[in-house]
Amino acid sequence: MSRFAVSNFDIKQLRTFLAVVEYGGVSAAAYRTGSSLSSVSRDLSALETRLGIELCRRGRSGFALTPQGEDVHSAATQLLSDLHSFEQRIQSTRQTLGGTFSLGVIDNVITNPQAGVVDALSEMHRLFPDMLINVSVHTVSLIDVQVRERKLDFAITGQPEKLEPLIYEPAFVEEQRLYMSRHSPHLEAAHDMVRSSWGSETPTVPYISRAYRTDVFSSFEHKYPLHVAARGSTLESVLASVLAGVGCALLPSHFVERVGSGDLIEIVTPDTPVIAQFHLVYRRDAADKRVISALLTRLRKT
């Protein structure tokens, strides 16, 4: 056979061939890859014609590679692996020269010293000085979707949706404690709620709920005689209601320390602090990118 120059059509057909071998037949490969049976058969036949080699035997006796097919399978596996490595290397090279990287976080993550976002951004600027880094804040219900749809390259969330194309990696935890204004008319009722046992006749204590809620939040809220007196979409809006004396709320300890706790009283309960687990989120097919690897390395140190 004369010199063999690999074309895009060859790569496509080799991928089909590898799928047929992996899944043990043409029908199984078509089903598992979402392709038509005719297109898989056509690719396989075209590859055999192109190479001048019978790659496999298929029929009533089942699917089996020929000796030549085994050699081609080994060579194709190595070729596609090398091609993937080349693509990743080129992508990394492009990222060192510039480009844009989008990081999404949920409310008040950046100011949490446990998150390490500021240090990570500083490290990224050092490694990729020509890269434009976009940082944006998103709601917990949408941030995973933004990563899945490639509108964000990376995210930090406290409420993972477990979407299939994404990797979720546990990161830091955040302490949530129950606070109320020292000037609130409901302060004594809040202390009584903790000091005594309660039943159906126990007066409820007003509570400010927020959009970011996990199972641990719900468990706490259902355990105590609380009723929702207000809602807030951000920590700042929840804090405003607490300071106004409307009721109590679960707030991150670091947030209260930063904004000043002089007007707030912690309502200590047997179930606080409530521990919220945060996660790093990125696409599975982006895990090998240099910028993602660098960011993961830095955030894992926090």
Structural class: alpha/beta
Q: Whole-number radius of gyration?
A: 28 Å
Mean pLDDT: 87
Main beta sheet strand tally, sense and closure: 7 strands, mixed
What is the string of SSEs from the N terminus onward?
HHHEEHEHEHEEHEHEHEHEEH
Shape: elongated
Helical element count? Answer: 11
What's the number of extended β-strand segments?
Answer: 11
DSSP helix fraction: 40-55%
Give the amount of beta strand, in percent. 15-25%
Please mark out the parts with pLDDT under 50 across 5 or more consecutive residues, or reply none. Answer: none
The end-to-end distance, rounded to whole angstroms, is 57 Å
Detailed description of the structure:
The chain is an alpha/beta fold. It contains eleven helices and eleven strands. The strands form three sheets. Strands 3, 4, 5, 6, 9, 10 and 11 form a seven-stranded mixed β-sheet that branches. A two-stranded antiparallel sheet has the order 1-2. A two-stranded parallel ribbon has the order 7-8. Strand 1 and strand 2 form a beta hairpin. Helix 1 (8-23) packs across helix 4. The chain is elongated, with a radius of gyration of 28 Å. The N and C termini lie far apart (57 Å). The mean pLDDT is 87.
